[in-house]
Amino acid sequence: MPMLRTAAVSLAAAGGLLATAGLAVADSGSGSPQSAAASHAASHAPHAAPTGDGARVLCQRAPRIDQRITRALTRLHGDATVPGSIARLQKRVDNAGAAGHDEIKKFLDGRLTFRKSLVPTLEQRQKDVRGVEKWCAARDNGSGS
Q1: 140 secondary structure, DSSP code
Q2: What is the largest CA-CA distance in the chain?
Q3: CA 20, CA 52: separation in Å to the nearest integer?
Q4: Can you give the pLDDT at residue 72?
Q5: I need a surface site. Which of 1, 7, 91, 112 has the fewest CB within 10 A?
Q6: Please, is 98 exposed, middle or buried when counting C-beta atoms within 10 Å of its C-beta (0-12, 13-18, 19+)?
Q7: Alpha helix segments (H runs only) across 51-101
Q8: Is the pLDDT confidence value at 69 over 50?
């Protein structure tokens, strides 16, 4: 009985969709479903293509981006008591090795390698963001040309 009810609901839903598609084709003025689909896609496009480079918005966000990068670098360079620091993860790797937990050590060592690789990337981004901040200050926060 539940299977019959499910099938009936599915057929009703499919019929409703087909009826709606038929009305859309009739409303579009052309008999082709492709043109109806194209007009539907055009009317529901997510956003238009960007017209500028977003300088004004980036100038507004740059100080917060710089703070976030500084906070991340401070955490990474912290000592073994700081959660998320390289030193703390290194201590965990050392503890796993001392305990003979080879698989745990291997897993944590991969995380440590990745965490160490974040430092130069974040430092470069910090330099870039500070350059953006200087650019913005010289150009009225990106509102001018």
Answers
A1: G
A2: 77
A3: 39
A4: 97
A5: 1
A6: exposed
A7: 55-76, 86-98
A8: yes
Place of tokens 């599915």: 10
> Looking at residue 80, what is its pLDDT?
96
Query: And the tokens for 120?
Result: 């130069």
> H/E/C letters for each residue in 91-124?
HHHHHHHHCCCHHHHHHHHHHHHHHHHHHHHHHH
Give the pLDDT mean for 76-81.
Answer: 97
The answer on pLDDT for 85 being more than 70 is: yes
Distance CA(71)–CA(91), nearest Å, equals 21
**pTM for the whole thing?**
0.62
Give 29-32 contacts, CB < 8 A, sequence gap 24+.
none
Which of these, 92, 89, 82, 96, lies nearest to 117 by C-alpha position? 89
Q: Looking at residues 37-45, what average pLDDT do you find?
A: 57
What is the 3-class SS of 8-56, one letter each residue? Answer: HHHHHHHHHHHHHHHHHHHHHCCCCHHHHHHHHHHHCCCCCCCCCCCHH
User: Are the C-beta atoms of residues 123 and 69 closer than 8 Å to each other?
Assistant: no
Tell me the two tokens of residue 126: 């910090």
